[in-house]
Specification:
Elements: E1 26-34, E2 43-50, E3 64-66, E4 86-89, H1 93-96, E5 103-108, H2 122-129, E6 134-138, E7 144-150, E8 156-159, E9 196-201, E10 215-221, E11 236-239, E12 254-258, E13 273-277, H3 289-299, E14 317-327, E15 336-343, E16 352-354, E17 359-361, E18 382-385, E19 394-395, E20 399-404, E21 425-430, E22 444-447, E23 469-470, E24 485-490, E25 504-511, E26 533-535, E27 542-546, E28 563-567, H4 582-588, E29 597-598, E30 604-605, E31 613-616, E32 622-625, E33 632-637, E34 642-648, E35 654-661, E36 665-669, E37 676-684, E38 687-695
Parallel strand pairs: 5-7, 10-11, 14-16, 20-21, 25-26
Antiparallel strand pairs: 1-2, 1-12, 2-5, 3-4, 3-9, 4-8, 6-7, 9-10, 12-13, 14-15, 14-27, 15-20, 16-19, 17-18, 17-24, 18-22, 22-23, 24-25, 27-28, 29-30, 31-38, 32-33, 33-36, 34-35, 34-37, 37-38
């Protein structure tokens, strides 16, 4: 029977500032767009609005900026102002704390107006040569302006694969990945009389906010476009253009701007939009006196707006994964690996845990003296558990069998498990490159580029995002070699929440004891369980499994004496595959207190620590526990003297404060708080440490 006592174990916070904002969410409104004085000398001017009038800054990370994409003409048609791809504000601290009323000017960094035509365009030149293609300044009204040279700066990314002209009005979560440096042509504007448009969309297509990004606001121009009405948030305004017989330039050399002051919904009112010559554009400055008043109303919170959908707060505890068995099978590549699921110190008494994003790989140099090279059991790429609800709440003590669909000599299930069977086992086939029908196992994902035999330890794409696809290619990803190899699990990493390189957590290896490809055990160290090795000349027709007489500590998994080798099960006779050591299962389900948790950046963290962010001054060790907290949240710290501890909600509002002198801990009664993610701050002089905790019932 699992202990029901909520243990006051030191917690580890697994959410990072990469997704859950410490400041409330902001919004992006279109304020001006320009086709430039010639060519593609275009820019888009956005203003930041607030959703909350009690704090000083807003979060606009991951907001999407796109052209028409069918929104303004409602149809799909060639030449209808639909450029493939879109732009996105990067998940960068620059966009995390933006003052409402700030103007953001995105311009084509490879083709912008010169200073000769308009003095304001000198800011484009300055931004283009500034660090990271960014110029932060203030305008004539004293409000902040951020100029970003798209194509030169990492603050604006682009996905040039989606959306496309078909289907219209969506499909932002399809194929392709984001380039760290955006491409202006992904939102290029048409000069023709038929027109085009610019829109902003809520963040989407990211972990815990996977849905399509909702249209928020926009403006269009031209005879082929029209107003967008009935939107979830703001509508899309429209500016009529005279036909080609009256205006030979049409949209070329035009600037379209908002002229407003009287109401919060002016940006969606077509009557408030006008056009002028591009040479008279005002990038970074207010368009008119009325527009200046409108932006002032954004800055002083007279006008606020509805927030976009926010990331879902996980309702389960974070778990850990460990290797308990691997097999080369009786022949060919009829191979499998068995993994066990357990709780970590964040809540060792948890009945179910979240293992989304955990990495699975073969040797990758871990067991053979941390070296790369051919013939050392290092296959290109790796697998991970998808960010799917199936893995968000896995019963503690479950086992997961990962195996090669294309060589399934044991007749294991050919469809993926979405829940454990009566024995507590998930069966997860991967591959399907030669068999028919192909198994659509979207629960296991693959990234095929890293690591390689020349880039051990490189799991994240160093030049951009790491796009995962449905798992395939067992032999080319985690295939087990006969002369020596291994299997390992790593903390989540290379994703929207856990942005760092995934740290090694546990594994098992086998291979020769001497020679250039010698294999050796990896001793347990801070944040991991180690990796035992059985030295052998061959792993052919062999299975290796964890078989201790008892389990008294998590590090027993790293002891080579607890691992044995045996002849692989004969074909079609693997009825016990997935049933690991009863001693280990008893230990995992008995609220173990020594399994380290994984941190938010992709690293494994030792037991008894919590991830903190030190804003200023020297490091300050802080522990917040239990996590999740149901009744009382304890905060311990190493600071001395006068210390202030604050608890803030997800919108950044301080909801509780305690000041102490000469003490090293405080506690908060949280029994009446709404479940969700909260932030704590520990302030000691100039030292400020922050972290996140979950409050649950």
């Amino acid at each position: 029977m699992k202990k029901t006592l909520l243990l006051a174990a030191m917690s580890v916070v697994t959410m990072t500032s990469g997704l859950f904002a410490q400041t409330p969410p902001g919004v992006l409104l279109v304020n001006e767009i320009s086709n430039g004085t010639k060519g593609t000398r275009e820019f888009v001017e956005l203003v930041v609005g607030a959703t909350d009038n009690t704090v000083a800054t807003a979060d606009v990370r991951n907001w999407i900026i796109d052209d028409n994409n069918g929104i303004f003409n409602g149809t799909v048609a060639a030449g209808a102002g639909i450029s493939g791809g879109h732009l996105r504000l990067a998940d960068d601290p620059t966009w995390e704390n933006v003052t409402p009323g700030t103007t953001i000017v995105l311009f084509n960094g490879s083709d912008f107006d010169s200073t000769a035509t308009n003095p304001l365009f000198s800011n484009f030149e300055a931004a283009s040569v500034a660090a990271n293609g960014v110029l932060s300044t203030t305008n004539a009204s004293g409000r902040p302006v951020i100029y970003v040279a798209v194509g030169l700066s990492t603050l604006v990314q682009s996905n040039n694969s989606i959306p496309t002209a078909s289907p219209a009005n969506g499909n932002y979560c399809g194929t392709g990945s984001y380039n760290n440096i955006g491409i202006w042509s992904d939102i290029g504007l048409r000069n023709t009389c038929q027109g085009d448009g610019i829109q902003t969309r809520c963040p989407g297509c990211i972990i815990n906010l996977e849905g399509e990004p909702t249209f928020y606001h926009g403006v269009s121009y031209g005879t082929q476009m029209s107003e967008v009405t009935g939107g979830t948030f703001l509508n899309g305004a429209h500016i009529d253009l005279t036909d080609s017989t009256e205006d030979t330039l049409c949209a070329a050399q035009k600037d379209f701007y908002l002229d407003s002051a009287t109401a919060t919904l002016d940006p969606q009112n077509s009557n408030r939009w006008h056009f002028t010559g591009a040479a008279s554009a005002t990038p970074g400055e207010s368009n008119t006196v009325a527009n200046d008043q409108f932006i002032a109303n954004l800055a002083n919170y007279t006008y606020t707006y509805d927030a976009c959908p926010q990331p879902e707060v996980p309702q389960t505890n974070n778990g850990v994964v460990m290797v308990t068995e691997i097999s080369n099978g009786p022949s060919g590549s009829c191979e499998y690996a068995v993994l066990a699921v357990g709780p970590c110190l964040a809540n060792p008494a948890a009945d179910s845990v979240d293992i989304r994003g955990w990495i699975m790989d073969d040797n990758n140099g871990v067991f053979n003296n941390n070296t790369c090279g051919s013939g050392r059991g290092i296959s290109t790429g790796h697998y991970r558990f998808a960010f799917d609800d199936v893995w968000a709440k896995v019963p503690v003590g479950s086992s997961i069998v990962l195996y090669n669909y294309d060589d399934n000599c044991y007749s294991l299930p050919t469809t993926p498990s979405t829940s454990p069977n009566s024995g507590g086992i998930y069966f997860e086939p991967v591959g399907g490159t030669t068999a028919s029908p192909l198994p659509p196992n979207a629960l296991i994902e693959r990234y095929g580029s890293f690591p390689t035999s020349s880039t051990c330890g490189t799991y994240c794409n160093p030049s951009g995002t790491t796009p995962y696809v449905t798992a395939s290619s067992w032999a080319s990803t985690v295939g087990l070699g006969n002369s020596g190899d291994g299997f390992q699990v790593r903390c989540p990493g290379c994703n929207d929440i856990n942005t760092g390189t995934p740290s090694f957590y546990h594994g098992f290896g086998y291979g020769p004891a001497t020679g250039s490809a010698a294999f050796s055990s990896l001793a347990a160290s801070t944040g991991n369980l180690g990796a035992p090795v059985i030295n052998t000349s061959t792993g052919s027709n062999t299975r290796f499994y964890f078989d201790p007489s008892s389990v008294t500590a998590a590090t027993d998994l790293g002891n080579p004496a607890n691992w044995v080798s045996a002849t692989a099960y004969a074909a079609a006779s693997g009825g016990s595959i997935g049933l690991y050591s009863a001693a280990l299962k008893t230990y995992l389900t008995g609220a173990p207190e020594d399994f380290p948790c994984c941190g938010g950046g992709g690293e494994a963290r030792p037991a008894g620590t919590t991830k903190v962010i030190n804003v200023a001054g020297k490091d300050m060790e802080v522990h917040a526990y239990p996590n999740p907290a149901g009744k009382v949240l304890n905060v311990d710290f190493t600071a001395s003297g006068k210390v202030t501890v604050q608890l803030l909600d997800i919108n950044g509002r301080v909801i509780a404060t305690q000041e102490v002198t000469g003490r090293s801990s405080v506690n908060f009664n949280v029994s009446n708080y709404v479940p969700g993610i909260y932030t704590y701050k520990v302030i000691s002089g100039k030292n400020v440490s922050t972290g996140k905790v979950m409050i649950a019932k």
